Amino acid sequence: METSRGDLNIPFRTLLGPGPSNVHPRVLRAAGIPVIGHLDPKFLELMDETMELLRFAFQTRNTITLAIPGTGSAGMEAALVNLIEPGDGVLVGVNGYFGERLSEMALRHGAEVRRVEAPWGQIIEPDLIERALAGRRAKLVAVVHAETSTGVLQPIKPIADACRRHGALLVVDAVTSLGGTPVPADDWGADICFSCTQKGLSCPPGLAPITVSDRAVAVTNSRRSPVQSWYLDLSLITRYWGSDRVYHHTAPITMLYALREALRLVHEEGLEARWHRHHRLSNALIAGLEALGLPILAPKAHRAPTLTVARIPEGVKDIEVRKALLSEHNLEIGGGLGALKGQVWRIGLMGESCNQANVLLVLSVLETALVRQGWRREKGAGVLAALEALASTPPHTGHDRHMS
Ligand SMILES: Cc1ncc(COP(=O)(O)O)c(C=O)c1O
What we know:
The protein is of the alpha/beta class. It has 2 domains: 25-268, Type I PLP-dependent aspartate aminotransferase-like (Major domain) (Aspartate Aminotransferase, domain 2); 271-392, Alpha-Beta Complex (Aspartate Aminotransferase, domain 1), CATH 3.90.1150. Helices cover 41% and strands 14% of the residues. It has helices at residues 25-31, 41-58, 72-83, 97-108, 126-135, 157-165, 185-188, 214-221, 234-241, 253-269, 271-291, 318-329, 356-372, 381-392; strands at 14-15, 64-69, 89-94, 112-117, 140-144, 146-147, 152-153, 169-173, 192-194, 207-212, 307-311, 331-332, 334-335, 344-348. The longest helix is centred in the last third of the chain and has 21 residues, at 271-291. It binds pyridoxal-5'-phosphate. Pyridoxal-5'-phosphate is lined by residues 18-19, 71-73, 76, 98, 144, 148, 173, 175-176, 196, 205.
């Protein structure tokens, strides 16, 4: 066997897919800091700071606000496995690939799952949830905030209100929204809200931020049976993150250095400024894509600023275009998931990746690719429309919310 394979040689890619997004050099530098022990006082200090910063990002006062080792799916699994006991009624909103995942996980944890469905590309009408809850009690409702397969941004507040009226808990998947658009866990009244590190927070993948309401803690404390997953049992994880500091797992030290730095960047920018940046630039991207003749899947009123999903024109070869973008321009965009495979492109503008240069770059290279495929003859319309949209909405300048 060959023993020396040389240094890793990874090119710089502009990451405009559904995640991961590009990582700020400060975050990469933080990840290079020497590893210390997971019970070292310096590390415990960092955990406390990370919790504070996560509360800021989730706009919450929840004591249990921490980061679980694993990706966004670990956050999803933790939310469900801690709240569900076999036989519990669980209502899941399914209007895309990740609603399906929620439903599948809830089933695996023994829930009696009822699905409230909407076509991919539409929101789940909150009334449907209300009616389903009124018809039969459910312990828990689970929905996706930004559905990454469709680019739809689900209104959460009316669903949370319906949950309150009917005594159900609410779990919100904020994997593709946190750090790019408001995720006001407390104002919503969400009971568990989870996310990932690799999208709006622009950190490498590997941790799942999660916040848990007192109501949800009370429910987990009164379980009839232990949580089926020892590793994701929040009561055990909390004893490590809380004042007890009891060993549960060896924390991924480097990832926590990185997350703390990524959250510091969010805090320095300010939440309003960050949301405005995502909103302004995704509007410019949408204007450009529409000018190229690529319709946006999500209805205008319900678009996630972090991820835009556009229909691929008839006759244009999806994979050929994405391959050309990657090999000729080091630019990644995403293809369709599930039923939308081959039919849409998913273009993310998240965290560090969300900047004006990237909007103009992706539009101009897409234009070139579409011309090459014979779908368009003239170039420039997309970039021009984006520039006009940018000129009509100034960048954020006002005062911003900071941590108290
Ligand atoms: C909405 C949503 N939920 C859950 C996940 C799962 O996250 P991960 O791939 O980090 O496990 C994703 C991943 O893209 C997602 O977009």
